[in-house]
Amino acid sequence: MSVHNEMKIFAGSSGKQFAERICSYLHMSLGSSEAITFSDGNTFVRIKENVRGTDVYLVQPIGLSPNNEFVEILFWIDAFKRASANSVTVVIPYFGYAKGDKKDEPRVSIRARVCADAIETAGVDRIIMMDLHAPQIQGFFKKPVDHLIALPLLSEYIKAQGIENFVIVSPDAGFAKQARKFSSYLGVSTVIGDKRRTGHDENPETLELIGEVNGKNAIIVDDFSTSGGTLIDLSHLLKRKGALSIFACLSHLLLSPQAVERIEASPIEYVISTDSVENHAVNHTAKIRIISAAPLFGEAIRRIYMHQSVSGLFEGLPPEVLEFDGL
Q: What is the pLDDT of residues 252-306, one digit of tens each?
């Protein structure tokens, strides 16, 4: 008898391509399932093969349709549990409610906590995520959370571009700690933008820079972008301050077609990001370069399944992860 239960990977409606890339890395087939949205908006999920006694990994980002994708995750967990799966691990490459991590004004919901409670009530056994906007969200869960980081993957891509004489630029003080990790990995200095946000309109104002960019190339780093406003505003300021070429590097891209057009018209040379969200709006522009994070997740899944340590992925990635072309 095998030491391990059989492992199967399934995909929610917005996670199929990412799940297929994970399966390609692991040399296995994607599990058979379907999700249907009825005319009244109801969601129906069905597992189309036996999962009794299986360790199941469900891949579903909470991204461009967060409410539908989140509810679908709950239904999938319930379906796998009722089908007698041995364990259910939810793989959420992008957790769209991560910004709702605190009660920072009166009479608002701590949305990330509500999501965590609901996912655990549905019966999840483990969660795998990447680059949460607020890492403390891991503490909202009682079940184990593996919080992966895209920094080594993105940094190695930056190295391969041969960009010289550059600095890492954080859009605000809140991301400065993470920006300094990029700088340390790449052996360069950090510049910090002084950003003020006065509402919920996704249009913050960058006021000033802390650090020198004159005569240097600049790489803006951040965890995600929806409107592109921060990147574009900061790129114009960097140009005014004497930066030569400007690039951006993010973990998640949720740009609309209009936001892509604004980036195309901006001083940014190109934006580097991962495929954590299946976003067709970013597929047809030379200014956006997508690299696959699926091998990173695949390696994490393999190690979890084999009862091996995942922590080594935080320090550096094995060559097979960096060399894998999942797109």
A: 999 999 999 999 999 999 999 999 999 999 998 999 999 999 999 999 999 999 9
Backbone angles phi, psi at 231, to 5 degrees: -60, -45
**For the stretch 169-184, what's the b/e string if a residue is b when 16 or more beta carbons lie within 10 angstroms of its beta carbon?**
bbbbebbbebbbbbbe
For helices 229-240 and 257-264, the axis angle rounded to 10 degrees is: 10
Is-above-0.85 flag for pTM?
yes
Alpha-carbon gap, residue 157 to 97, rounded angstroms: 28
Catalytic residue from among 48, 81, 195, 239: 195
Q: What is the per-residue pLDDT across 291-304, written as a single tens digit (0 to 9) for each?
A: 999 999 999 999 99
Residues 6 or more apart from 93 whose CB is under 8 A from it? Answer: 15, 18, 59, 61, 129, 130, 252, 274, 275, 276, 277, 293, 297
Q: How far is C-alpha 191 from the chain's CA centre?
A: 23
Catalytic residue list contains 195: yes
